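pinned: reference chain
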Amino acid sequence: MRTRSFDHKKGILYLVATPIGNLSDFSFRAVETLKLVDKIYAEDTRNSIVLLKHYNIETKLESYHEFNQDEKTLSIVKEVEDGMNIALISDAGLPVISDPGYKVVSEARKRGLPISTIPGASAGISALIASGLAPMPYTFYGFLDSKKTKRVSELNELKYIPHTIIFYEAPHRIKDTLEDMLEVFGNRNICLARELTKTFEEYINGTIEDVLKIEGLKGEMVLIVEGYKESNSMDGNPFEKIDELIHLGYKPNEAIKEASKLFNMDRRALYKDYLEYKNRK
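pinned: its structure tokens
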């Protein structure tokens, strides 16, 4: 569906990417935009003020974060409707991605307001291209849930995705997350990228078990995880193979037919056994 024509009497909502670590990774256009807009909304004004002072940006700054976005979304959109030029930034990288901003953008789109992206650094893509793992296709997931039960459930939903997967993770949860990945995904190849663009930038390649052996990892992290690779061998459990094929999009009857071929089993007998197996779970 095409966006309605912009009313140029109204302002513009600018989505401005900020550096992910190194303050020099900020475009001339981004600096100029933040100097010229009427107001900047930032996830954490305490963090953003450092960047703004570095570039002598004196534009009025207000907060917009997950705890006040419901009450502020409509007021920001109203400001744009009234002719103000507004910039939305996050602490690091692109706003809206794993950061507040979606509600403002969605509401602005509904009202046909002008939105302009000022591109820049992205931690996920930066880590992906340097990881050595397949860059395309990829699935960006962002942060997993902080609670183990929900996190394991999310990982099970992602288990059979054949694409490289990009995750964000905090240092105090990295060990728990990797242990859950090992349990659900198996011992896949990964790249852990940390402190991107900073002095101690590091890329750690290996299996999940390899990375789990490393102690004292610090800094914000990006995890690049190898996608699922389908096995054509007859090793393993035929019932798990059926579940695997269903996750990949096969209809149950098709999955049972394929599994019976792989394990050299009678299809009808396998169907009956599989139903009993599912009823026991």
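why pinned: The first helix runs from residue 28 to 36. Residues 238-280 form one domain.
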